[in-house]
């Protein structure tokens, strides 16, 4: 089972699918055995409430937990093999997962051409292209949020543990065949992990120029590893830079440019109505970033001289955002897909 584009000319930022989950329930991925039993009981009750055609669609999804290919798929096996993140439960008490007729058919890639997210305001899982896609091209997503920070073997172990398969995407296939490529890729991803750890440190804002250098290196390494502007991980990186820069009055221009890059990346990868942008209030901050409560909070502790490095990166980000804005405008002109109209929206199941 897989998901394929049904037309060419798809650009980064296009929403290819918007689908309501057939079955919604607590995510069992990190649950204890007792909690798993509760999840299974609740899921069975909700499954039994579905129509027979809906039940058949769910049980047609893969079950990686079957003992052999002749066994019938079990509901819990289908859930563990296919469930996608679907927001949080009432009051934010627990993570939710959803089973979708089409979205759950999207296969994994360590260098995907699409990004999945759950849009709470729509109550749907959505799929966005994060690069140009041609006709009859397989649509892929990344099952591991930590994939950019994992080496080849670490990714294989995580996928085997969580989904019971070893990855054979283009990146991993080449890594198996080309030791030099694999070593270079592993070094880059190991470096990305180290850079993330340093930038996430609570004291990163107290050494803003060092953090600026780390961010510039991260941008370079991520680009070398194939992570383009249109991805939520790039959005998170730029938002972290914003959090660091906003603490210093002298870095306000870079803070504004970083936030704009964050909004641009999330808009392309998840849509302008995505949870991250709405909940974070990023769009409102764009107009007046100095209204952020942390603005200039470290000026008394450390004066940061205005430097050409910060100004150069601000200009670089501004150019990136302007280029992405054109793609976003083109993509947003496409008709909004509705559940059940995947073929017209540019995706079809096979």
Uncertain stretches: 332-346
In total, the number of domains comes to 2
The gross shape turns out to be: globular
- H/E topology pattern: EEEHHHEEEEEEHHHHHHHHHHE
What is the CATH level 1 assignment of the largest domain?
Mainly Beta
The number of helical segments is 13
* Rounded Rg: 21 Å
Please state roughly what percent of the residues sit in beta strands, choosing from under 5%, 5-15%, 15-25%, 25-35%, 35-45% or over 45%.
5-15%
Number of extended strands: 10
Give me the CATH superfamily of the largest domain: SET domain
**Which CATH-level-2 architecture of the largest domain?**
Beta Complex
Please describe the biggest sheet, giving its number of strands, its sense, and whether it closes into a barrel.
Answer: 3 strands, antiparallel
Helix/strand class: alpha+beta
> Percent range for helical residues?
40-55%
Order of strands side by side in the largest beta sheet? 2-8-7
Mean pLDDT: 88
CATH structural fold name of the largest domain: Beta-clip-like
């Amino acid at each position: 089972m897989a998901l394929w584009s049904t037309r060419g000319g798809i650009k980064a930022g296009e929403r290819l699918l918007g689908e309501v989950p057939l079955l919604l329930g607590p995510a069992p991925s990190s649950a204890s055995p007792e909690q798993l039993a509760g999840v299974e009981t609740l899921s069975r009750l909700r499954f039994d409430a579905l129509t027979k055609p809906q039940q058949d669609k769910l049980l047609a999804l893969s079950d990686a937990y079957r003992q052999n290919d002749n066994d019938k798929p079990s509901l819990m096996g289908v859930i563990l093999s296919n469930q996608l993140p679907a927001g949080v439960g009432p009051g934010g008490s627990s993570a939710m997962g959803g089973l979708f007729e089409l979205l759950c058919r999207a296969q994994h890639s360590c260098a995907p051409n699409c990004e999945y997210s759950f849009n709470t305001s729509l109550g749907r899982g959505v799929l966005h292209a994060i690069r140009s896609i041609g006709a009859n091209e397989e649509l892929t997503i990344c099952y591991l949020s930590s994939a950019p920070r994992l080496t080849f073997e670490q990714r294989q172990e995580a996928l085997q543990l969580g989904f019971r398969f070893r990855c054979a995407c283009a990146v991993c296939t080449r890594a198996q065949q080309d030791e030099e490529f694999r070593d270079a890729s592993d070094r880059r991803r190991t470096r990305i992990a180290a850079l993330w750890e340093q930038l996430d440190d609570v004291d990163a804002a107290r050494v803003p120029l060092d953090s600026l250098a780390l961010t510039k290196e991260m941008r370079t390494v991520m680009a070398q590893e194939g992570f383009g502007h249109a991805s939520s991980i790039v959005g998170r990186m730029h938002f972290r830079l914003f959090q660091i820069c906003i603490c210093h009055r002298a870095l306000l221009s870079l803070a504004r440019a970083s936030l704009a890059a964050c909004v641009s990346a999330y808009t392309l990868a998840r849509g302008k109505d995505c949870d991250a942008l709405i909940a974070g209030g990023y769009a409102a901050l764009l107009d007046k970033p100095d209204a952020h409560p942390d603005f200039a909070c470290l000026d008394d502790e450390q004066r940061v001289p205005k430097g050409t490095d910060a100004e150069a990166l601000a200009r670089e980000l501004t150019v990136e955002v302007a280029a992405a804005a054109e793609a976003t405008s083109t993509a947003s002109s496409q008709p909004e897909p509705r559940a059940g109209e995947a073929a017209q929206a540019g995706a079809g199941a096979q």
